[in-house]
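Inputs:
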Amino acid sequence: MSEATAKPMVELTIDGKKATVPDGTNVLEAAKSVGIRVPNFCYHADLTWEGSCRMCLVSIEGRPKLAPSCCEPVKAGMVVHVGSPEAETARRAQLEFILLNHPLDCPICDQAGECKLQDYYVEHGRYESRMPRGLKVHKKKVVDLGERIVLDKERCVLCSRCVRFCREVSGSHALQFFTRGVTTEIGTENDGPITGDDYIGNVVDICPVGALTAKDFRFRQRVWFLKSAESVCGHCSTGCNIRVDSKDGTVYRFVPRRNPEVNKSWICDAGRDSYKLLQGPGRLAGPRLRRAGTHVPASWEEALDAAQAAIAHGKKAGANGIAAIASPDVSTEALYVFRAFARDVLGTSLVDYRVDGSHEKTTVMADKILRHADPHANNTACAWLGLGQASVNDILDACEKEQVKTLYVLRAEFLRGHPEPERVRRALSRVEHVIAHATHDIPELTLASVVFPDATYLEMDGTFVNYQGRVQRFARAYPPVAEAWPATGVMAQLAKRLGGAVPAGTADKLFDEMSAAEPAFGGLRWKDLGLLGAQPKSAQTVGAEER
Amino acid sequence: MTPRPSPEAPMASVESPDPRWKSRFWGHTQGAEALREKPTFRVLEQACPGAVTAAEDRSGDLSLTVRAADLLKVARTLRDHPDLRYDMLLDVCGLDRSALPEGDGGERFHAVYHLYSMPRGKRVRLHVPLATEHPEVDSLTSLWASANWAEREAFDMYGFRFRGHPDLRRILCHEEFVGHPLRKDYPPDRRHMLSRTYSSFPGLPADSPEGQRISVVEGDVEKVYINLGPSHPATHGTFRIQARLDGEVIEESRTEVGYLHRCFEKMCEAHQFTQIFPFTDRLNYLSAFNNNVGYAMTVEKLLGLELPERAIAIRVILMEFSRIMDHMVTIGTNLVDMGALTNFWYAYLPREEIYTLIEACCGARLTVSYGRIGGVSQDVPENFIALANGVLERLPEFVDYIDALITKNMIFQKRTRDVGVLPRDRALSYAWTGPVLRATGVQFDLRRAHPYYGYETYDFEIPVRTNGDVYDRYVIRMQEIRESMKIIRQAIERFPGGAHIVDDWTVALPPKNEVYTNIEALMAHFKFVMHGPKVPAGEVYSYTESPVGELGFYLVADGGPKPYRLHCRAPGFYIFSAIDENLKGAMISDFAANLGSLAIVAGELDR
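Outputs:
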């Protein structure tokens, strides 16, 4: 946005409304800025202008012909009519033209429900079909394009969004146009599988119709049954904005959400698939306790009792009787509560989050497009909150020497990232009590005496701070599964039992409290974060120190 | 439903949103000058200055916003002023505006009143904003008897407190129910465990122990309490009356309704406009099609939709047939309750024939769901006219049988004459409509008073009688059956061709043969089923003459695919609210005769 404001502003009139937009904007975006939506298939805000679908034709005063608004840069004093009769007629004719050879697939098409053809027909069309049945040109259906994509050539409206994406964004040049005229179609060379493109999933999202569909979403759910939540991908430190589509507590897909400052309109395929890991097999259903060498399911009451006793035991052993490790996978609010919990309730300074060295790679790119080498969402927040008080290796040493009696781990899965897994196992087995929050069952959990089932970030509200220092909100897509309970609630409960107090409340309340107390957050308010997140003014400098 | 900002950040400065948006919904600008000329507004400005804060014309309805503190004064002026004479309080309901896409910053709750002036034939709607934290307003029970149950319903559904109400407790929901179901923050799928039945008379047990009776002794008289229902043959549905008897005379009775309550209105808020038809079938299920039409008309009024001639004719014919069926069942069951079984079969046989006719049209008999926004779901069969004529030919025979057996029958007259009399002014005060009101001497029928579907062009009589007793109600229904047959004959004569539903795919499904053969219709079909019809934001009250009385629907739409609020003004609810007054001093044996003559259908009563 800083780039945009630097450009001179241009004023024009669209359907009688005054719009003021930066020079270089096209008429279509200018219309959108005053709430007028111009139908379009081929235009995409993060791809080059193409002008192939002709659905966005508008009248511009002083021009003899209609102009495609997506390819028309604004000029000062321009007078545009989106709703003029000529433009309406032209768009309707164009829609009829596009639909001439379109198959009658809605009942079996995954796109039905979020299909631009359907939307525009209802909004702009309503003409009688003039195409006799039997004359339609048929093309290949169900073309398997490798691991992720299935192509239906008949449904394609030849907008070329996917072709441009492969050329301009992913650089794979995988999809191309073939042949000419009415038989024009998109495809790969000899309809072979697409390989070596880690972003190819995006072509499904940008396809305005049902030509490109995702293999892992096809036929699994009708889109109008899905509930959407605005979230942030937690698969690396980029923090791509996503929409989580779920139904009855099952996620069916991650779809990128446009954020020009972070991910534009894209996410990588690994991030897109990460919902499978978050739900996957092995989700912990309820608390567990170690009894007589084996793990048994327990009630929350029993688990909290056991944790309370273990913490009291560790406290008796003196200043370094307890250590605490947090994971940069949890929300900023959980980290904030954790810090207070470690300091005021556990009374320890043996606190760290730098287990796998990822904190040094937060701003290191893993490819040329979006991905970062740091596989955690929230290392920046850990640094801002100053959670690196001791070193993890010192903590592990203290465990091995049996100085630490009780180890409190927020997200035990994270410990597996340590470069020396044997050392971690050894340390854990020497500690008398390990209290672990975890979302999934892992072998190391057998060494814990109390296991709390944690909620994933899909199951709660909160924020992540990405590699830029941008604070981004994620919204709860569905309630925690089974007996899972967000760690903020568990720590508040434990603090109460141990006669201490930690910040408690909903995510917005915790965030505002934290932001007021922590200069790194620059006084941001929860409501200021909006859907696209915000960067504290100081973020650049604070982030730079860390980097 | 907070507006979700576009994830694609606007790239340029945005001008302030169109101010007309607000006025389209709650604004006070449309035709304000013309409204000021209306006598209602003029009189109120003089009599209660400052009380009316806004006057609007919403789809032709006059709607006044009244300060809560002035409601009683305004209502009294409306009722008593010689220029206004709004003698009927037709309906009271609540409205929770908290989930509207964009409010005007006013109070969360509105109490909404619908008034009707019988002498002037005018309607007015009052919006009374109530304080969000403690929604409270003066009760209108001192002015109209109909306010009693209506305000109890608003209290039950929204938690509104009505100051001065004699008996403000839940009416449709159970005593143990927690919360107010029609508030927007009440989840539609919440369930309650309800443990037991309560007595209508405080301090008495709800059920009499086996072999014992509940009674009190006053002096040397033993007053016995009896309980009728909820499952009693004469209730024809489920409701309960507890009565204190002095000998065979009902000294006092208390009525409990709500046993069939399913919160029809909450269900409507959770479904698309098109999905509501099956719910309306189950209101007055004796004439389901009339409910279909009543609801469809409401949405059509908001849309400003013109119906095809043929759709109107189909509606008129089937509505009148349904009226005949409804009256037949009412008469038949009423007579059965008095021991006259034969007539029951004379009444039910033609009903079967009519059901077969309706089945030929839409495939269903009882819960027809034949109505659609903009017409009916499918065209009538080719032989429809022949079928209808066949039914019409055989009908009079059965009506004549009943007439011959009953109308001048001495036993019947002894059982019904001067029984269950409610005088004219009380009937109006209770907002009675339909045949029971016409039996008290008020010649009021919406088909004549506010004609719709060309009823003004049909030649038919509005029967009226003056005694207001069970006998008159019976006679009126018998006469109305014959009048309905007259209307059907005329409608058949001029039965037009053309479409059975409007050709607008944003409110009605495209024809199936098109859906299966071209992509355009297929897409329209999909969009319609998935995202519902396009109904503009607005507020409307629409009414039809159902067999029971004025069936009204009050609809608030927010521009989405579902009704924001749909309230059903069930005629039976208001008729039945007079039952306790009607039974007072009556013989216990008259109870069944009286009850049956009021045409009580619990599906509509409890909604």
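Remarks. The first helix of chain B runs from residue 20 to 25. Chain B is about 40% helix and 15% strand.
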